[in-house]
Amino acid sequence: MGVGASFRSDNDWGASPQILAAISACNEGPARPYGADEWTRRVEERFARIFERPVGVLLVATGTAANALSLAAVTPPWGSVICHRHAHINTDECGAPEFFTSAKVVSSASGGSKLDPQLLEAELAWGRGDVHSVQPACVSITQATEDGQVYTAAQVARIGTLCRAAGVRLHMDGARFANALVATDRAAADLTWRAGVDVLSFGATKNGALNAEAIVVFEESLMAKLPYLRKRAGHLSSKMRFLAAQMGAYLDQDLWLTNARTANAMARRLADGLAAVPGAQLEVPALTNILFMRMTDELSSGLRRRGYDFYGERWGPGVIRLVTSFRTTPEMVDGMVAAAREIAGAKGI
Amino acid sequence: MGVGASFRSDNDWGASPQILAAISACNEGPARPYGADEWTRRVEERFARIFERPVGVLLVATGTAANALSLAAVTPPWGSVICHRHAHINTDECGAPEFFTSAKVVSSASGGSKLDPQLLEAELAWGRGDVHSVQPACVSITQATEDGQVYTAAQVARIGTLCRAAGVRLHMDGARFANALVATDRAAADLTWRAGVDVLSFGATKNGALNAEAIVVFEESLMAKLPYLRKRAGHLSSKMRFLAAQMGAYLDQDLWLTNARTANAMARRLADGLAAVPGAQLEVPALTNILFMRMTDELSSGLRRRGYDFYGERWGPGVIRLVTSFRTTPEMVDGMVAAAREIAGAKGI
Amino acid sequence: MGVGASFRSDNDWGASPQILAAISACNEGPARPYGADEWTRRVEERFARIFERPVGVLLVATGTAANALSLAAVTPPWGSVICHRHAHINTDECGAPEFFTSAKVVSSASGGSKLDPQLLEAELAWGRGDVHSVQPACVSITQATEDGQVYTAAQVARIGTLCRAAGVRLHMDGARFANALVATDRAAADLTWRAGVDVLSFGATKNGALNAEAIVVFEESLMAKLPYLRKRAGHLSSKMRFLAAQMGAYLDQDLWLTNARTANAMARRLADGLAAVPGAQLEVPALTNILFMRMTDELSSGLRRRGYDFYGERWGPGVIRLVTSFRTTPEMVDGMVAAAREIAGAKGI
Amino acid sequence: MGVGASFRSDNDWGASPQILAAISACNEGPARPYGADEWTRRVEERFARIFERPVGVLLVATGTAANALSLAAVTPPWGSVICHRHAHINTDECGAPEFFTSAKVVSSASGGSKLDPQLLEAELAWGRGDVHSVQPACVSITQATEDGQVYTAAQVARIGTLCRAAGVRLHMDGARFANALVATDRAAADLTWRAGVDVLSFGATKNGALNAEAIVVFEESLMAKLPYLRKRAGHLSSKMRFLAAQMGAYLDQDLWLTNARTANAMARRLADGLAAVPGAQLEVPALTNILFMRMTDELSSGLRRRGYDFYGERWGPGVIRLVTSFRTTPEMVDGMVAAAREIAGAKGI
Hints:
- The structure is a homotetramer.
- By secondary structure, the first copy, chain A, is α/β, with parallel strands linked by helices.
- The first copy, chain A, contains 14 helices and twelve strands.
- Chain A has two domains: 3-12 and 255-347, Aspartate Aminotransferase, domain 1, CATH 3.90.1150; 17-254, Aspartate Aminotransferase, domain 2, CATH 3.40.640.10.
- Chain A has helices spanning 17-25, 38-51, 63-74, 88-91, 96-101, 117-125, 153-166, 177-184, 188-191, 226-232, 241-251, 255-275, 297-305, 330-346, and strands spanning 5-6, 56-60, 79-84, 104-108, 135-142, 169-174, 199-203, 213-217, 280-282, 290-295, 308-309, 319-323.
- In chain A, helix 1 (17-25) crosses helix 11.
- The relative contact order of chain A is 0.18.
- The model of chain A has no long low-confidence stretch (mean pLDDT 96).
- At the A-B interface, strand 1, helix 1, helix 3, helix 5 and helix 10 of A face strand 1, helix 1, helix 3, helix 5 and helix 10 of B.
């Protein structure tokens, strides 16, 4: 049985050694600041290869910055950003989208954690051309979603088609894009621009970087705005090579995919193990690195007493969230499962 | 004679090895994200020691963020921020202060690069209480200034007294605070809160960090606003330990002061060397790590041809800017001086 | 049988003759602009009498301005404004609240058109103190509501108590405050500050003025902000006497109450008449000057053909909205009822 | 000798009787709100005739709204608005341009009260394409200027050409456009779109209306933005006919030009009269309805004691401002001149 481990958040875990090594390696000699350096150029090339086409790339240090800047590039002040009510941009960014866009974030009535295309279609038509109403300007979807679910390429494409028809842009919050990608086993292009995505927040921080995210731009015209939006938001890093070195190492030799596969596999293993324990059950399928489990209080508090750390206040009675990362080990997982079994056994369940 | 070196910007140079080492060292095990970690706590303690009193500390990744957030904490939407017309916040942040405050940046008529207290007093009185006018809310001074000059403690205090009398806040843009501090040989407290500064942008990036700055808060009431302002601007780092480790190593064993002393000494050496070359003269005293020299075109273009890199378009005909850093070596300096002498000699000057 | 009449909106109808007369009467000689005139002073006195206490008063030309400025005075940029999802500020102001506050408008899950205190209590607790979440700063209720319902004094007070307990402000959108007041037969004070309202958008335009609304401020500290907020939003009228004369005549000799009583009585008469017609039924009680009726398509299109004008696309199949005003006459009402009866009769219903 | 009169501001004076009559006349029957009425349509036709081409027209209630909305339509958040340092938008709108644009207002170094094309050209080139700098997006000129001067058609055209070359828009603040127009004796088109103006704040309030201004749009693409910008700023009047009736009467039978001619003629008469008094002299030519006079303190305080009201604190020692209006009479003017003569005589000057 284990001695405890954190399943609170992928943010709890540090950086991949390869990424730390790249930071040290890029520290020789002078380099042009603000992105006019070699490392940044190479990151742009890598993204072009990954997405099988030229793309615009802007590196920033946080996911909230990547999201809010992306939204600001596609939403006029009188526009609306339509998203799921559980979307990070709606609930966890302290109003950053409103600040950056000066517009309105409208949460869809969709259930689950993915946008329902049928509801979305009606929501996209609401108020169109009526000067009293904000004008739909952008749809934002999260991939993987806040509860670890994944839009298939076809599902993204259906939303992309609705967006095109309505003349609005499609943004993807890919804070956990790598986790979603390895879960779908599709090409990155299939989940994004081929399916109608105009701009992607490509996360690296949660999956092994220190503080590096990319705004990947498929709609070229946005590149006339984004560099200025980034600068005036204080998100243009002077010593850019240190962001670029992180992102470079993250993309090199598929580290990003390897890390995501590890995290997803650990979540799967944890889900399988815990679901077999009496008093615990999976709330939604274990597709990526986030699990939601319903548990008896005895079980959850017993696990906490044994040093297993996780969130559990926010998703209704008895529901806890477990997040794995590239650093989660089989031992941590198996330890938690064994602890759960022991607690359940002691209760004679 | 040297083979060239960059004197373009302190942003061209990478990070101190001690700071890189600290980043690697903090990477063990899980840590609470968003600043609830040990490294962040220790940084707060270090700042309290340096400033000889409790202070609020918020780490961010860029100087523009530190400035704009500080200003937003002290300026209502109908307020004005008064600064020198050459202030970075006025000329080099693409409107970030306007974006974060939604207020007006008013540039003082002061000459040189420091605010003239007499002019400032009149500017602070302008429009006060008149609903048609923005209301003076904040004065922002740069230490060291954009052309490398330094406010003495008495000069800061005089401005601080004017601010107190006018009921406005005093912000200090200390992107190069370390360079100013070692130039004045005063306590950090003397240049800041004892002289009336309410909030300080404390720079580390230009002087050896990768991407770490601190907002140091002396006016406690601002701490009720700043954490929310930071989050909604996308400047709350999730894996905060990586910013904290940088700042910790920067402050540890006076690395920040050592680095600044090196940079200032190199500037002094360069100033002395070049000023002795016919056709070159110092525009303003060489107090910190930024020099402005007036040079003949032959001299400046000759130096560029020999691989010496610097800016020279922006400050009038014949004026170039030279910036040294903690990584500038005597060899780089002496090489440039020798090259200048050779060019001047060849011209028979 | 009538020849048609407009029940589209109280905005379709012009101004009371008394108000036009007051505008002409105030036109003699010079007067200080921007509110430093006699007419404005007297309006302030009248409001103090109506609300039985000193109040702050700011006249503006539109209801959206009154609402958005009120919200901006009580909501910091990281705050949230909680309102009913049908609230005018949420659906009909093209994002003005977001523009003026730079904050987030959060729509309550409450049913009907009034905020449910039990749901509100939970919504006020959400995210409190969590830096990732916008912070509840203000609750906004509409009196009368968008579907013509009225909060009793006790209902306002219950919400007021929740707001006080949560440390948030209470705003009342009183675009149709007069209609609500005469419906409740209570003192204006009972529906507002005695029940915890901090700031009121007091409408006059819909009820007989040309373009005049008042922000009535019960929380004195807001008066330090509102004059500046109004000016920078372009809502400080230079020739203020023309707004003040309107508001003065509106309040004089209870014109506002008389007009509202007429409008409400006409709505009641229309509701009674139509509800007796087969194929028509009232959706919600007829309390003020807005009715929602469910009707057969034959009935509604027949009425339209006969020249009766009303909205009917927005509230679900078969639901139309009928709005009366101070200018609606018994003849208009009876004509419509007679027309409806005739149409229903012709269908052999 | 007169008994005093106000020369403080054209805002001190009420409305033309024709405009009051038009307001009363438009009050019959229902009318579509928000500008879908007959009066608004006819105003659009009148403007098309005046400017000899189709134009977009948006009526608003204040000059600050007209200016700030115009600027917001042509300035992205990272843009700058270049204007004279004495421009109303820079000094007298409490930051409205910054609020509406979220951008930076940059005051030109030009002397006098008109933009100097040579300086402007350099200012338009500053920072172009540099991501650290706000990007010039709009030039705003005031016609007539804040000290009553007038740009000739050729002068506007020169600035218009610079703007086109720089790819920026040209806005004209025409709060006193009528006064400038009659001073130049040119067609309205010559002073505006033919000279490169993209959008004009067309004032009526100062010259006889109650509260009505028009945004006149020559660059058609702006009409896709302005209606939404106006609504979200709370500047879309519901009972629009009351603004339209004002503007209609203002334009009908050249009332606007007649009123402006009266005001300008009274200013000329006042200037001639006072300039002949020892101890008084004209500071700038008397071209429109604003005079700046330098006077001895005896003279100015003597005039004030006799009931002549004017501003005099803001433009340097001894300088007072005198503003005439369409309601200023020869008696008021001659009375003031006689009073000045008497005061000067009593001093034995």
